[in-house]
Design brief:
CATH architecture of the largest domain: Alpha-Beta Barrel
Order of helices and strands: EEEHEHHEHEHHEHEHEHEHHHHH
Number of strands: 10
Helix content: 40-55%
CATH superfamily of the largest domain: Aldolase class I
CATH topology of the largest domain: TIM Barrel
Structural class: alpha/beta
Shape: globular
Number of helices: 14
Strand content: 5-15%
Length: 324
Amino acid sequence: MKIGNITFDTYPVFLAPMEDVTDLSFRLLCKEFGADMVYTEFISSDALIRRVNKTQDKLTVSEEERPVVMQIYGRDPDAMVEAARICEEAGPDVLDLNFGCPVKKVAGKGAGSGMLRTPEKMIEITARVVEAVRLPVTVKTRLGWDSGSQIIVDLAERLQDCGIAALTVHGRTRAQMYTGVADWTLIGAVKNHPRIRIPIIGNGDISSPERARQAFDRYGVDAVMVGRASIGAPWIFKEIKHYLLRNEPLPKEPFAVYLSVLKRQVLQSVARLDERRGILHSRRHLAASPLFKGIPDFKPTRVAMLRANTTAELFDIMDGIEPR
């Protein structure tokens, strides 16, 4: 599979863009564990062209994480074009247009998956951005706004005609948010449409190696994208890649090995930010990590981890955890 002039090996597995999750330190960890391509957090086109410091920080990429995708969102065509040019100067390998974010503060204002209610504007933005930059441009979107407007098959062809290099489809509507089960039959319908020539990346509920295998074998997608299942578990990419390539589960490591990965993630966040902000940023990963699932009476320990204010205090609590 190719996106622009980037060639991927068999069964590509990508890290999905997630706000407050896919910062540089987490992307590097996921890359280390086998992610074939990683995505930045969402970047607001309006904030970017206003040069908001926090937004500009998201433009930082590392040579070690390549290929890396920078993702922007917005509803104004002129702002999206200007933001795309700013991103191009920052040096990502691919530029992605976010037409899939379902949260109210984004979609409710007509951006992200809100664009599914105004497909003509989505097409206009896509065509103009493709024309404005030299980078490969891709799109990430959903099946439709709700169950009564699942427009993705027709929309995919129109987006392809704009000149995009690949399309990622999340198998839910905006109305579903992240509830229910992702509908991969429509993702498969896009991939197997006779007029579709670009790579199709499937997204939604890829939470295990077995589900990744099913996505490739049953629906024929060119790549899969892992989102929430990677939070607090960057090693999932190694597990998925091993299973896809060898058709057998990857043997589990000792508990201490996974714990050391989470500690390293905390330290990298602290080094990139500072101790207070780095720990705050890491809390979401610690709270969601499947590493602690099933440990009896773990709630008080989880609460203590999330209240820790220093790395010394946090690591002391983590070192006291007895695996199940």
